[in-house]
Fold this protein.
Amino acid sequence: MSPEEPAGGSREESSREGRRRRRLWTLLAALALAASRVLRPRGSRARSDRGPAPPVGAEERAERLVAALLLLTALSGAGFVTLFVLHPDTQLLGATLGACLALLALALAVASSRLVVSETKVEQRPMPGDPMEARQAAESVQAGGQRVTRRRLLGGAVGAAGAGLAAAVVVPVAALGPGLEDQLSHTPWRAGRRLVDAEGAAVLAADVNPGGFLTAFAEGVDQEQLGSPVAVVRVDPASLRLPAARAGWAPEGILAYSKICTHAACAISLYRSPLSPSTQARGPALVCPCHYSTFDVLQGGRVEFGPAGRPLPQLPLMVDAAGALRAAGPLSEPVGPAWWGDRR
């Protein structure tokens, strides 16, 4: 790969990105300036003696302005969703979502100041008794809602703005992905599934040497899944002390345990295999390098030392006719930390 081309391409991409951001901030500044002008109190509006009647044509202009602001709100929400899917730049996402909220606030402010009758008066109100006065009061209240003449336009604009804002809120939530609990409880291991290495090649029983340690994965499954990786070791079959229900889980002395530590979900990457007779009292064990939780492989992954709250889940194994290792069933327990054990 030529070193000059990436550098030039990177500078050009950075320049384009900078121009887009400057244009976006310029638009936001213009919107803020327009908002300050629209919401600035006018002398004619501050006078209460002129009554609620606005100038001729002012309501229609205000309605068009509110509708335009609401449509811009919808476009900003759609822009946020588009950027989130195609180009999730943090600054651009924040700018578009901020513009969406700012435009919505501006539309509500304009509607409240230009379209909603706001009048404060203090007067003595006698008990209603004259039908004529009651009818006049009802007509006055009804006239207060006649300033909105384009209800269908404003209704459609409100719906579009609501849809854009809802999409901007819902899409990031929907992109959070599957729950972690499902990955811990439902692992890909099933009876008959082969064990493979990082390259996808089948793991043979002959590949596992006494005292050796290797990592295997479920065939045909994403290796990043928490339940997929297992640690495979071989011990002397005569030294096994597995529970009676797991008597056939270690063919030829080969065992497999989940690589996810039951303390804090670290990856187990150490294997203790004593060679000296002076250390035979402490047999082979898998060790987590984070907090040194130690699991006895001879006794079904029992916790021998450290803060882990429960044994490692064990995978039952079998050897097929080709000598490849296969799962004889699912893991003995869900993988991952045992938080209830940490609290005890």
Notes: The CA atoms of residues 262 and 337 lie 4 Å apart. The chain has eight helices and eleven strands. The helical segments are 4-38, 43-46, 58-86, 90-115, 131-143, 151-174, 180-185, 339-343. The longest strand covers residues 213-218.
